[in-house]
Amino acid sequence: MNTNATITIDCSRKSEHEINPYLFGHFVEDIRDHMEAMLAFPLKDMDFESDAETKTPVSGSWRAYTNGRNTQYAMEAPAPRHSGRAQRIRILSDDEAYAGITQRAALKGPMNYTVRLVARASVELQYVTVEAVDRRTEETLGRLRMELGSHNWQHCEAQLSISRACSDAEIRVYVPAEHPRWIDHVSTGMLWIDHVSLLPVDSIAMVKREVVEMTKDLNAGMMRLAGNYISAYHWEHGVGPVLERPVMYNEAWGGWTSKYFGTDEFIRFCRELQVEPLICVNDGSGTPEEAAQWIEYCNGSADTPMGALRARNGFPEPYNVKYWEIGNEVWGQWQVGTCTAEQFAERTISFAKAMKEADPSIVLLACGHYEQNWNKAVLDLAGESIDYLTLHLYHGYGPFGMNRDTPAEDRYKAIASYPEWTRHHVRQTTELIRSRPEHSHVKLAITEYNTMYYPNTVRKGLPNEHTLGAAVANAANLNEMMRCSDMVHIGSFSDLVNGWLGGCIRVGDYYADQYCGKQPGWSGHPLTIYGTPTYEVLKLYANRDIRRVLPVQAECGTFSVASRKETPMALDALPDLDIVAGTNDDGSIVTVLIVNRSLEAVRAVLDLKAFEASGETTLYEITSDSYDDINSVFQPDRIMCKESRVPAEAWRQGYDLRPSSVYALEFRAQV
């Protein structure tokens, strides 16, 4: 054990700047299974948008449900103004059969679900049955009868009571065999279904209640709507009556963009969370005029054209979205509309002009890069038009030349060096920003960050993004963002729910892969919702009462990273302890955040200068037996933040910090 760690904090020298609460923001993106995991709908292909996956022409995740020898299936155009397709089912009376469609689903229970059905039928078909059964036992979990009663399209709604939770259920929508038979001729026995959805009554803004509650605990400050998909996303397709919104292909990630989570739903989500929205506009396939109209839709009065559209959609009061971002990773070849830095700078000028004309009060962010040649061109040409430059700082094996054959401890140490890389990129960008008065006002927004354990994207072995080691790295990175908080005002952890990396909230055991799409897990626990160790870190940090940073001096052991590549900074003597300290508004609380990156326990002695602490401190600890430990559907609470009380004297004498662990200490002033 290293017994020589000494931490000194001068509580009389608090920073002049305040830490912006937006530093602890989060990020939602329509990527892989993010929306599917976040939204509360248990069914897929609710509008029959996907092609048939079997020889029988039944859309996507749906399957034929019939014992009729002659039942016919086809996909047709949907109801007027609706998107997707309609599923047609032709039932021959002489078969005396049941016929409809079915889909597997995981259901909460006991729970009431709102069932919405858009259908039409030939006049002799009077009703359909909607039921849920346990696929393994055929136990009926809930059943209801929905009247048809018209040859024209109609919207039906009813409550389906589910008796108990079932992870492997089946939803069936069908004409039952006991339905009165009809004289069989050319115009009978036809049923068209345009839309089927189930929504649990405990959902909030169409989002899973558990996700909303867990996100509230994150105290995010800001929620970002952006990502690669946004550069081919047209906002006007995501507003208005949801069934009339067009189905849009997700050009970045494949599959369908969720039409159920557009602008209005995002704003409602933010208001439920009481966080500030940040919206990234489409600068790839979109235009400055389109971006300006989006701002007018959100912020314009009902007297403006787009504000009137918002009012017609049921939201008469302006949303007053203040923060807007131009461009997402425009420098990347994977990005729709990728271009040179000079071209993007010209684009930024035209977008900023149109967007500011729509609302002069907005704050504008523009796409930056950790490559300074890009930033220099954007700042020199467009710096006067923007308020923030963005950075996306993902940290993985690539810069070290490592792979899964590299010894595990070397890989851990490389990931734990996250803050050193963030410090390097922030310092370089800050120097560039301050180099010319025309853009010296610009601040930084790290609008995406996370650990990225390449080459784990094919999901071989454990999901490293979810480990305690990842949490240690992300905590140390947050420490650096707080140390740089005079320049870094905004942060967005990537992603909020599932997604392609380690979404901090996990729904079930689906590991959506960057290249292979949505890959289902193996556990049979799709209803389990839990936080990763990094979720515990993010919640811990965002809920501390820290407004100003205090200077920290630390003497401790060091470790080195055995990089296979040349790195832009020395990695041969990195401190075992990564520490940041701060105080609240009135100086009555001092909080010390300590990340023990070492593979050994460290005994730390703490000295607070110019602060008379009370006799007891509150200690928060995130730890486990190994840096490779994870939370999972089998052990969702294996790694949790634990709170305890520790005498202040223990810190003056020396307190043992476990390996690969995260700590927060709260000292209160003597009364």
UniProtKB/TrEMBL annotation:
Catalyzed reactions: Hydrolysis of terminal non-reducing alpha-L-arabinofuranoside residues in alpha-L-arabinosides
GO MF annotation terms: alpha-L-arabinofuranosidase activity
Alphabetic keyword roster: Carbohydrate metabolism, Glycosidase, Hydrolase
E.C. no: 3.2.1.55
Alphabetized SUPFAM superfamilies for the sequence: (Trans)glycosidases, Glycosyl hydrolase domain
Pathway: Glycan metabolism
Domain Alpha-L-arabinofuranosidase C-terminal: 447-661
GO biological process, one term: polysaccharide catabolic process
SMART domains: Alpha-L-AF_C (SM00813)
Listed InterPro entries: Alpha-L-AF_C (IPR010720), ASD1_cat (IPR055235), GH (IPR017853), Glyco_hydro_b (IPR013780)
One GO location term (cellular component): membrane
Top-level division of the source organism's lineage: Bacteria
Enzyme class: hydrolase
Family recorded in the similarity comment: Belongs to the glycosyl hydrolase 51 family.
Subunit structure: Homohexamer; trimer of dimers.
Name listed for the protein in its UniProt record: non-reducing end alpha-L-arabinofuranosidase
Record organism: Paenibacillus lautus (Bacillus lautus)
